[in-house]
Amino acid sequence: MMMDSFTTTLVILSFALPLAGTLILAFSGGALGERGSARVGVASVGLAALATAWLIAGFTGGDGTPRTVHLWTWIRVGDFQPAMSLVLDGLSLTMMAVITGVGFLIHLFAAWYMRGEEGITRFYAYMNLFVFSMLLLVMADNLLLLYLGWEGVGLCSYLLIGYYFQNAANGQAAFKAFLVTRIGDVFLALGLFLLFSELGTLNISEILARAPQTWETGSTTVNLAALLILGGALGKSAQLPLHTWLPDAMAGPTPVSALIHAATMVTAGVYLIARLHGIFTLAPDVLLLVGLIGAVSMLLAAFAALAQTDIKRVLAFSTMSQIGYMFLALGVGAFDVAVFHLVTHAFFKALLFLSAGAVIISCHHEQDIRRLGGLWRTLPVAWGGFLVGGAALVALPLVSAGYYSKDEILWEALAAGEPGLMLAGLLGAALTCLYTVRLILGIFHGPANSDNARHARSGTGLAHNLPLVVLAVLSTAIGAWLYPGLHGGVLPPNPGESVEGGHTMVAIIASATVIAGLALAGWLFHYQRTWLARQVERGMGARLWMLWHNAWGFDALFDRLFVRPWQALVRWLRNDLLDQTMSLSAVAARWLNVRLVRSQTGQLRHYAVIMVLGVTLILLFLALAPALGGGA
Amino acid sequence: MTLVWLIVLPLIAGVLSWLVERWHGKAPRWIALATMTLLFLIGLALWWHGDVGQGRWLAEWRAAWIPRFGIEVHLALDGLSVVLVTLTALLGMLAVLCSWTDVTERVGFFHFNLLWVLGGVMGVFLALDLFLFFLFWEMMLVPMYFLVALWGHAGAEGKTPVRAATRFFIYTQASGLLMLVAILALVFIHQSGSGVYSFNYEVLLSADVPEALRMPVMLGFFIAFAVKLPVPPLHGWLPDAHAQAPTAGSVLLAGILLKTAAYGLLRFALPLFPEASQVFAPVAMALGLAGIIYGAVLACGQHDMKRLIAYTSISHMGFVLIALYAGTALALQGAVVVMVAHAFSSAALFMLSGQVRERVHSLDMRDMGGLWSRLPVLPVFFLAFVAASLGMPGTANFVGEFMVLFGAFPVAPVVVVIACTGLVLAAIYSLLLMQRVNYGPVQSEDPLPGPDRREYGTLLALLVLVILFGLYPQPLLDTTAPLTDRLELLFTAEAE
To answer: Alpha helix (H) ranges present in B361-496?
Structure first.
């Protein structure tokens, strides 16, 4: 359905404004200064958020049918006609609201966080470009345009992780992030090739319509297509085995971690699978694999989070773990619930990251938990942010946003007949309690463990307080109520809808787990600190600590399996072996040259002898040739 | 007659700029720039006014030359040639502009060579007589030899530019000889059937080559073009020549001369021998894969910035080779887009290398690092063109590569899967380039001068083109559609 020109304008504005912000900043040549750059950067996303809000108001007032804005046909060769065309439906609007809404708050917070940093124009140019790409990703009505956004956010992520470029380690982290996600992207690209050659279209709604007509459930081709798409999702969403880039990505400024590596980009994989749900429901085996990968990633990351000492790395593993929950939800066919958790997670994880940013700046760039402590008095706003965000993260019953979405996930897992996944989810919930409590107690309670912590100064001003307060409100039950619910419209019904009873039971078990987990964590990390500290110093405890601290050793494994052989190959070929082989002909010519030059002695006798010998040989050959049967 | 001017104008201007040097030092530059601008405008006018949707020639010109052997001066222009002619003129302008301060010695003779290379290339893209084509093919070489030998710079381990130029000359000369043999064979085969000698392309298209001879004659053409494309293991001339040539030479080599090979395959090797090409396709695609991966691995191991970029050309041209032998319209169109996109992005990267070299006085990336904070504006362009070279969507490079892969997938899925590793490798070498030059700790605190208006303008123009064709490649696609559609028909007809 087409729409009126006003709505069309709003749609275009919503993603064109951040792009305009990037262009203004890029061509300003530094003339805007710190304040001017921040204003342009924040305002462009803020206006985009307003446009999105207007669109949502219009959409909820209407009948809820998806609408398309066709800008132009990107490429047209035969059947291959991907368009620059955007779709507005419940799913894309929900994502847009998160991207522009949370994005705006983070941009605003960054104005406080980045104060006095070098190159703030560059920072906001990249951030705006990111918002633009991410919006295209979720608004695209075809997979090629989605891929444009998909790669665009990857590039921005690379640029922002390596923002402090003078430190070579940051460059390495950025490089790793881009490369690992690019490997996933290649799978997605192959998925696109397969879908196009099988279905003859890249338009998402046509793909979803044609897939069930073309493929039988569980056929090889549809399984392959689903697997390839899953590969792309794993890379972007940092799930096993393409997850190793996310912890290192924390090298970027903290607002970047909040926006890209918590709230939006890393959840793109969840969005992708939810968007292409029709393919995955045709491939039930692959769908189950999605859930299994989610569950395993969730547990492994939760254990790893327990043994980190850097605030941001704890949060990074926590993000990976929470995305694991979303994959688990996708895996049991509860697409809507996965998106629900995506939304609440965007609120509370952004809150946690921004609060962490507030702590880090207030403590003069100290982000080691062991060197913090006792900050709850000096940094009340950040402390509040951590308490509310942490409550949502552990899914504190009834009052937190995270409770509603996580409870749904556990219930849908059971309803879909996967009690194993539900148990994994419960275990994950308990582990979440442990690392969250450890984190909050470590930062805010106990004695201050360094001068940086003792001399902390709380942030002030609107740019610091407003984002934290708004996100804190959204992380409570209020945030959960805001979620519109998408099944029936864009996403298929959740499995729980066809199952009677049992939901209350799951809710009670989940709540009990959380409360027990919190109690255990409080006891462990408050009263048994010294015992714990002794345990991790030697023996089994130390080994576990190292294993979890290094996130189960994946980095070392991949380093041996891929990085070193690759480097060896590059070194081995560096001087162009093939070319050297080809150059042997030159060597041979020179060798012959040296030999033949010797025959030029300058002595007439030699020449005469050789000539006579030559003539004799030729005559002999001519005389004998017919006799030998050659005869030519 | 316009077509004749396209070739003759640069030749005349070349002689002129050599002569006027003694009167005014800058005159050769202005003459060269004016000529290339004029040619560019002529190219655009031909494109604009020609009815490119039609399959026929947009313009044609013929005159007898050596009637005894059926050799003519036969020039013609279709969608593909108009794209490449315009591209040549544009890159010619850039080559003149980027040597404005780079080349200071023997300025007149430099521009003579530059313009004669361009004239030769124009001839290659327009000649429809195989003898004439061969003439122009050889004509590009000699001035290019001088460009590299006289104005080039020493490579690693003290390799002289003369050595690089000689390698380039021997490789292309030997392959040219092979092509001459193939052309003559084709003409004699045609003569034995019809009784008349003809070097006319359209006549030879209908030549009935005996089955046993198709493959060897086709291979003669293929190898000649494969050296120029280049395809490993015949690529040995490329890294040295690209890396040691002056900036203008690198721009022309990567931007235009490599494309003559792809053009030759599209224009001659494929239509003249569709059956043999069809049989040969798996080998050609395997060679394309070898190029993609080998070029990328080698690029990762280089310290010299220009050598790195040179090896990436091998990798990118691998995609073109795969597309040509996949033979679907989508892949062939993609190949044309890759050719254009690669011309822009590699020319820009070579120009950036030249500009960095003028400032840092080195091309060794170990002497760089941290340029982002020392050098204004240029690193931003670096970033943009590195992104183009790794195939970031929104750039023409992405459109080209993905059209190739989409188009080749139904024909050769395995090839596409392997070619996709090239996408990951492209990320590695592109980011290595970015990282080593612009990021990391600075080697010195001294600020370097930013780009002047000439440098800024040329880079910005290229960037705009890369993004424009990345978001709306349709004008390009419509122009070459008749040719690629015809080739697809030839290929599918043989497959059945």
So the answer is: 371-374, 378-389, 396-408, 413-438, 453-471, 474-495
**What are the structure tokens assigned to A383, written together?**
């402390």
Decide: helix, strand or coil at residue A555.
helix
CB-CB neighbours of A619 under 10 Å: 10
Tens digits of residue pLDDT in A229-280? 999 999 999 998 899 999 998 988 999 999 998 889 999 999 999 999 999 9
Structure tokens at B183: 């052309």
Residue of A nearest to B479 (CA): A77
Q: Does A162 touch chain B (CB under 8 A)?
A: yes
- Yes or no, beta carbons of B435 and A77 under 8 Å apart: no
pLDDT (0 to 100) of residue A154: 93
Task: Spell out which residues of chain A touch residue B234, defining contact as CB-CB under 8 Å.
Answer: 582
Residues B282-327: pLDDT tens digits? 999 999 999 999 999 999 888 889 999 999 999 999 999 999 999 8
For residue B404, what is the nearest residue in chain A, using CA coordinates? A193
Determine the distance from the C-alpha atom of residue A611 to the mean position of all C-alpha atoms in its chain, rounded to a whole number: 80
Q: Verify whether the Cβ–Cβ distance A77 to B403 is below 8 Å.
A: yes
Q: What gap in Å lies between CA B16 and CA B38, rounded to an integer?
A: 16
8 A C-beta contact, residue B75 and residue B127: yes
Q: Mean pLDDT throughout B218-239?
A: 90
Residue A3 confidence (pLDDT): 57
Residues 6+ apart with CB under 8 A from A602: none
Per DSSP, the three-state class of A83 is strand
Find chain B residues with C-beta within 8 A of A151's C-beta: 392-393, 398
Secondary structure of B104-142 as H, E, C letters: CCCHHHHHHHHHHHHHHHHHHHHECEHHHHHHHHHHCHH
Contact A236, A266 (CB under 8 A): yes
d(CA A225, CA A437) in angstroms, rounded, equals 41
Q: Which residues of A589-605 are buried (b: 16+ CB within 10 A; e: fewer)?
A: eeeeeeeeeeeeeeeee
Best mutation target, B297, B314, B439, to test chain A (most A CBs within 10 A):
B439
pTM beyond 0.95? no
Q: Which residues contact A192 (CB under 8 A, 6 or more apart)?
A: A143, A144, A147, A202, B406
Give the nearest chain B residue to A567 (CA atoms).
B301
Report the share of chain A in percent with pLDDT over 70: 98
